[in-house]
Design goal:
The complex is a heterodimer. By secondary structure, chain A is an alpha+beta fold. Residues 1-39 and 657-666 of chain A have low confidence and may be disordered. Chain B has helices spanning 2-28, 34-44, 51-60, 67-79, 93-97, 100-128, 133-147, 150-165, 184-221, 224-231, 236-242, 244-274, 279-288, 292-320, 322-325; strands spanning 85-86, 91-92. The chains are: A alpha+beta, B mainly alpha.
Chain lengths: 666, 332
C-alpha cells in the first residue's frame, strides 16, 4: 500500500475502483489523489523488528535477518481503525474446524491477495506494490522487489509466466483452458512480461471481473511457485525422476500429480510454498493442523514489526455438531464458522468460564431466508402463475416478516426483501421495503385480480384447472431454522387461500429437481454479496448461472453460451441480462452505479426472489486475549473472506491472561 | 474338528463377496457421485464451477463408467491390497488411513475386553444373588447403561469433564503425539486416553452382557443336575464353576460375533463426538461426500473384522462345547 497507485489517463475508471472508490470521482486529477493517499497509507518504518520466535534460527544462520527477508518496500498495515493497537509477537491461536478440507479456511482468513478489499470494501494493492489500469482492459502489475516465497525463493514475474504458459495453457494440466474470468468473450489476455517485477495483462475489451476475482475469498491465482512446481512438470523435470514420483504418489500421470500438489486454494500440501501469513505444516489428513508463521511475509506494522503477530494457528478438527459445545467450553480462541444464531444463549452463558466474549456480527447475505419461485418450472399452470408478477407480490405481501424476526431472531434482524444491505453504497430503503409489508388485504386483492377466485371447502383457492393452490416448498437444510420460518409463513399464507407444504430433500436431489423444473418453489439464502460497490459484478441480479434457483434454465443458457438450458423468454430477466452486458461495457463508476440501481430496482419491483429477514446476527466468539478484531462488523464470504478483510495478520494475543484452553492444558 | 474349521473358513469367502457387492451398491445408491457433492459444496460457498471441468474430472476418476465396471476395478485392486484412491483427500486410501485402522482395532479390542471383565463377575453375582439388594442395584445400573445412547453419555462426560475438571477429553493421545511416530511415550499417552472411549462405547454392551449372563445362568441354576450336585455335597463355588457356569458361557462366547459390529458401529458416532482418530469419523465423512473407494475400503475392513471375529468365536465355541465341535453327529 505504500506505493499507492499511479494514475494513468483520466479515462481510467479503475482508479476509482482501487482505493477511495467513494471519495474520488473519475474526474479528479492525479496529483490530488496522491495527496489523499498520503495520510492513509502509513510511512514505511525505518527499521524492522524480528519476531522473537525466529530469532534463534536467525542467530544460527538458518534464516536471514528480517531486513533481508522482507521485500524492499514491505506493505505497511493500517492501524488507524478505531480500537486497533499495534501488538506484540507471539502466541498460538486455536480454532475449531469440522473437516480436513477446512485447511482452505486459513487462506481465506489469511487473506494475502494480489489486490484485496480493505474494511470499506475498496480494492487496494496488497501483494502487489502497485496496479495500473487503463481503459478497464490493460492491467499492469508491479511486484515488490525482493518479495520471497515462504521457502525463501524469490517471487517474480516468472511465477506468473509459469502459471499462464505452463499451467493455464497446458492441455494436460488445464484441459478446459484458462479460467473463465480470464476469457473476455472467449478471448484470452495478452500477457507481457516487462521485467522481473512488472507484468501486463491486456484484453481488447474491458474485463471488470478480473480484479474482484483476484481479491476473492477463494481467489483466482494467476501465479504459482514455479521453482517448486517445475520438478513435477513434464516440460521441466527429468522424465525418469518424474515417473518415479508419479508412481510413488499413486497418481495416474504427471498432470494429476502436478494438480494434486498445486493447490494454493485448498492449502493441503505442506510442501507448497505460499505467500500467506501462515503456512500449513501438517500433512493432511489429521485431527490437528498447525500453521506456522511465514518468515518471508510481506507486511509489517507501523513500528516495523513483521506481521503476522501471532506465531501459530492451530485448527482442531471436531464434528461440526459439537463445535458450538466445544466453543462454549472455551476450546477456541476465535470462532464463527459452524456457530449459528441459535447457539447464542448457550455461548453467552459460557463466557466467563471460557474466558471469551460473544460478539454479534451482521451476516452479509442479502436475505437470510429467501423463497425462490422457479420461473422455469415444467408444469404450465404453475409456470404461468409464478411468472405473473401479481402472484409473486401477493406471496411476498402475505409473509409476516415482523413475526419471523421477533419469534426466531429476537427482533435483531432487518425485515424486508432480498436486496443489498444498508452498509452498501447502493442501498436504498425502497428496495428493502418493496412489496414487503404485511398486507393480507392487498395480497387477497391481487390474487382475486389474477382470477383465482374459486375456492375449495377449506377456503384454499383453486388453480384454473381445478387443482388447489398447494405450494410445495423444497428445502435442503441450508438455512438455519428454515422449518420454523416456513411454519410461520404457512399460517399467513393460509389467510390468502394458499396452502404451503414443506419437503426437505438431500442437497443433490434438491438441486437436480430445480434444474429439471420439477420444483415449484425452494428455499436458500439470498444474495451472496449483500455489500456490493458499483464496481462489483451484479451477476446475481441477472440470469448468469444454472444454480440460480429462480431461473436455472436461463442461467444455464447464459452460462453455456446457449449450448444448454432455455433462452430467456420473459421481459424482466431479459432486461436484466442486457443491463449486465451494459454494466460490463460501462465507462466510469457513476454509470455502473446507475446500472446497479436499475437492476436492483427491477429485482425489488418484480420480486423474482422473496426475501424475509436480513442481517441476521452471526455469533463470533473471541477470546478475551485477542486484540484488533472489530467489535461490530459484517460476516461475509465474498467480498469479505469472513475474517479476511479484518486482516487476521494484525490480530494479536495479549499476555494478560491465558484462555481456558491453555489453562486446561496445564 | 478340522472339517469344521475349513467349513467355517470357506463360508467367509462368499460372505465377504456378498458384503462387498452390497457395500458398493449402497455407497452408489444415493443420487449423484463424489463430484456432484463436491460441486454442491463449492456452490454453497458461492463459487462457480465450470461444467466442462467437471465432465473432465468425472472421466478422469472413472465415474462415468457403468456400475459393474467400477466394481470389478475396485475389487480387483482390493484383492491385491490396493484400497483405491480417495477423491476427497487426493491420495491413495492406504496413505489416508494411516494409523486409523490400528487405533480402531485397539479401541475395539479394549472395549470388548472391558465388557467381559466387567460383565462376567457382575453377571454371576446377579444370578447367584437373584432378587437381593445387590442384584436390584446392579440391574438398575445395567438398565441405565443399556438405555443411555452412548453418544449422549459421551456428550455428558465431555460436559462434566470440562465444567468440573476443566479438561478436554477429546482425542486418543496428547496433541504432541498426533502424527508422531510410535514410541513408548505415545503408547502410554494412548493408554491414558483410552479409558474414556472404552467406557463410553462399552457401557451398553456391558449392560447387555450382564443381563444375558444372568438370564442364562439362572436357567441353568434351576436344572436338576445342579440340584443333584448340591444334594451330593459339592461345595457351592466349585459346583457353580464346574457345571452351570460352563453351560452359561456358551452364549457369552457366541456373542463376540454380535458384539463386534455393535462395538464398531456404535463407535462411529462416539468417535465423532469424542473426535477419536479412528476410522469412524473418516468413514462418516467419506459416506457423506460419496468418496466411494475410501468408504468402500473402510466398510470392507469393518466387515472383515466382524467376519474374523465371528470365526474366532466359532473356534472358541467349538473348543468349549463338544456338541458344536462334533457337528450334527451328536444330535442324531
Amino acid at each position: 500500500m505504500t506505493g499507492g497507485l499511479r494514475r494513468p489517463g483520466v479515462a481510467s475508471w479503475a482508479v476509482g475502483l482501487l482505493i477511495f472508490g467513494l471519495l474520488v470521482s473519475s474526474s479528479v486529477p492525479g496529483p490530488v489523489l496522491a495527496q489523499m493517499v498520503a495520510p492513509v497509507a502509513p510511512a514505511v518504518p525505518t527499521r524492522y523488528i524480528e519476531p522473537p520466535v525466529l530469532a534463534e534460527r536467525v542467530a544460527k544462520g538458518e534464516l536471514p535477518p528480517v531486513e533481508e527477508r522482507l521485500p524492499k518496500t514491505p506493505a505497511v498495515a493500517r492501524m488507524d481503525q478505531p480500537g486497533m493497537t499495534p501488538g506484540r509477537h507471539g502466541g498460538t491461536l486455536t480454532m475449531l474446524m469440522a473437516s480436513t478440507r477446512d485447511t482452505r479456511q486459513m487462506v481465506v482468513y489469511g487473506y494475502a491477495r494480489l489486490v484485496g478489499y480493505d474494511r470499506d470494501f475498496h480494492l487496494v494493492p496488497d501483494i502487489l506494490e502497485d496496479v495500473e489500469v487503463k481503459e478497464g482492459r490493460i492491467f499492469t502489475f508491479r511486484l515488490r522487489p525482493g518479495h520471497r516465497w515462504s521457502d525463501g525463493a524469490p517471487f517474480t514475474t516468472e511465477d506468473f509466466r509459469y502459471y499462464w504458459e505452463d499451467v493455464a495453457n497446458n492441455e494436460a494440466l488445464s484441459p478446459t483452458g484458462p479460467p473463465k474470468v480470464m476469457m473476455v468473450d472467449g478471448e484470452p489476455p495478452k500477457v507481457e512480461i516487462l521485467d522481473e517485477t512488472t507484468i501486463r495483462y491486456s484484453w481488447s475489451k474491458p474485463n471488470a471481473d478480473f480484479l474482484p476475482a483476484l481479491a476473492g475469498a477463494l481467489p483466482l491465482y494467476i501465479y504459482r511457485p514455479s521453482h517448486y512446481l517445475k520438478q513435477f512438470h513434464a516440460d521441466y523435470a527429468d522424465p525418469e525422476t518424474l515417473a518415479a514420483k508419479v508412481a510413488e504418489s499413486g497418481q495416474r500421470n504427471w498432470a494429476a500429480l502436478h494438480n494434486r500438489l498445486d493447490n494454493l486454494d485448498k492449502n493441503d500440501n505442506p510442501d507448497l510454498p505460499t505467500l500467506q501469513p501462515w503456512k500449513l505444516t501438517t500433512k493432511p489428513p489429521s485431527q490437528r493442523f498447525v500453521f506456522a508463521r511465514n518468515p518471508y511475509y510481506h507486511r509489517v506494522d507501523p513500528q516495523g514489526r513483521q506481521l503476522p503477530y501471532i506465531d501459530r494457528v492451530v485448527f482442531h478438527i471436531a464434528d461440526s455438531g459439537i463445535i458450538p459445545a466445544k466453543t462454549g467450553a472455551g476450546e477456541s480462541d476465535l470462532q464463527a464458522r459452524y456457530l449459528r444464531f441459535d447457539n447464542y444463549t448457550f455461548l453467552k452463558e459460557g463466557e466467563e468460564r471460557g474466558n471469551y466474549t460473544v460478539r454479534l456480527w451482521r451476516s452479509g447475505t442479502g436475505s437470510e431466508f429467501t423463497l425462490y419461485p422457479n420461473l422455469n418450472v415444467e408444469d404450465r399452470q404453475w409456470r404461468a402463475l409464478l411468472r405473473d408478477v401479481r402472484f409473486r407480490r401477493a406471496l411476498s405481501l402475505a409473509i409476516n416478516r415482523r413475526e419471523i424476526n421477533q419469534v426466531i431472531f429476537y427482533g435483531l434482524a432487518t425485515e424486508g426483501g432480498n436486496t443489498v444491505l444498508e452498509e452498501s453504497p447502493l442501498y436504498r430503503r425502497e428496495y428493502r421495503t418493496a412489496w414487503a409489508a404485511f398486507d393480507l388485504d392487498q395480497a387477497n386483492a391481487l390474487l382475486d385480480e389474477i382470477g383465482l377466485t374459486e375456492r375449495d371447502d377449506d377456503g384454499i383457492r383453486l388453480m384454473p384447472d381445478g387443482r388447489p393452490l398447494d405450494i410445495i416448498v423444497e428445502t435442503a437444510g441450508q438455512v438455519p431454522a428454515e422449518a420454523d420460518i416456513l411454519e410461520l409463513i404457512r399460517d399467513s399464507w393460509q389467510e390468502i387461500g394458499i396452502r404451503l407444504y414443506t419437503k426437505p430433500l438431500q442437497r443433490e436431489v434438491f438441486r437436480n429437481r430445480i434444474f429439471a423444473g420439477e420444483t415449484v418453489m425452494s428455499v436458500w439464502s439470498g444474495l451472496e454479496n449483500g455489500l456490493p460497490t458499483p464496481d462489483m459484478v451484479p451477476w446475481e441480479l441477472a440470469p448468469t448461472r444454472q444454480e440460480q434457483l429462480q431461473w436455472p434454465q436461463w442461467g444455464q443458457y447464459v452460462e453455456t453460451g446457449g449450448a444448454a438450458g432455455e433462452p430467456i423468454d420473459m421481459p424482466g430477466p431479459r432486461r436484466l441480462k442486457r443491463l449486465l452486458e451494459d454494466w460490463r461495457g460501462a465507462e466510469g463508476r457513476t454509470e455502473r452505479a446507475a446500472i446497479w440501481d436499475r437492476m436492483l430496482r427491477i429485482n425489488a419491483e418484480q420480486v423474482f426472489t422473496i426475501g424475509t429477514v436480513a442481517g441476521v446476527p452471526q455469533p463470533v466468539v473471541v477470546s478475551n486475549r485477542l486484540r484488533n478484531l472489530p467489535e461490530e462488523a459484517v460476516w461475509a464470504w465474498d467480498p469479505g473472506a469472513h475474517f479476511g478483510v479484518y486482516r487476521a495478520d494484525t490480530f494479536w494475543l495479549s499476555e494478560a491472561d491465558a484462555t481456558a484452553a491453555e489453562a486446561a492444558a496445564r | 474338528m478340522f472339517g469344521y474349521v475349513v467349513h467355517r473358513l470357506f463360508i467367509m469367502i462368499p460372505t465377504l463377496f456378498v458384503i462387498s457387492v452390497l457395500t458398493f451398491l449402497i455407497i452408489q445408491a444415493p443420487p449423484g457421485d463424489y463430484l456432484s457433492t463436491y460441486i454442491a459444496e463449492l456452490q454453497s460457498q458461492g463459487e462457480a464451477v465450470d461444467p466442462a471441468k467437471i465432465a473432465y474430472l468425472r472421466q478422469q476418476y472413472g465415474l462415468d463408467r457403468p456400475f459393474h465396471e467400477q466394481y470389478i476395478r475396485w475389487i480387483a485392486a482390493l484383492l491385491q491390497g490396493d484400497m483405491g484412491y480417495s477423491f476427497e483427500h487426493g491420495m491413495p486410501v492406504n496413505q489416508v488411513v494411516g494409523d486409523r485402522l490400528l487405533l480402531t482395532v485397539i479401541v475395539s479390542a479394549a472395549t470388548i475386553l472391558f465388557i467381559w471383565v466387567v460383565s462376567f463377575p457382575i453377571g454371576i453375582y446377579s444370578a447367584t444373588h437373584q432378587y437381593s439388594l445387590g442384584d436390584y442395584g446392579l440391574t438398575f445400573l445395567g438398565y441405565l447403561g443399556l438405555a443411555t445412547p452412548n453418544f449422549l453419555l459421551a456428550l455428558v462426560l465431555l460436559y462434566f469433564a470440562n465444567v468440573y475438571f476443566g479438561i478436554s477429553i477429546g482425542g486418543l493421545m496428547d496433541p504432541v503425539y498426533i502424527d508422531a511416530p510410535w514410541s513408548w511415550a505415545k503408547i502410554r499417552s494412548v493408554l491414558e486416553h483410552l479409558w474414556i472411549p472404552v467406557i463410553v462405547i462399552g457401557t451398553s454392551g456391558t449392560a447387555g452382557m450382564i443381563r444375558r449372563l444372568r438370564a442364562n445362568l439362572l436357567d441353568e441354576l434351576q436344572k436338576q443336575y445342579v440340584v443333584t450336585g448340591r444334594a451330593k455335597g459339592l461345595p457351592p463355588g466349585r459346583l457353580l464353576i464346574k457345571y452351570p457356569l460352563r453351560m452359561a458361557l456358551n452364549p457369552f462366547v457366541a456373542d463376540i460375533g454380535a458384539l463386534l459390529p455393535e462395538v464398531v458401529s456404535g463407535a462411529v458416532i462416539v468417535s465423532v463426538v469424542l473426535s477419536l482418530p479412528t476410522t469412524g469419523p473418516m468413514l462418516l465423512d467419506a459416506l457423506r461426500s460419496q468418496d466411494m473407494y475410501l468408504a468402500g475400503s473402510f466398510l470392507m475392513f469393518l466387515a472383515l473384522l466382524t467376519v474374523v471375529g465371528l470365526f474366532l468365536s466359532d473356534l472358541a465355541l467349538a473348543a468349549l462345547d463338544p456338541r458344536i465341535r462334533l457337528g450334527g453327529t451328536a444330535a442324531r
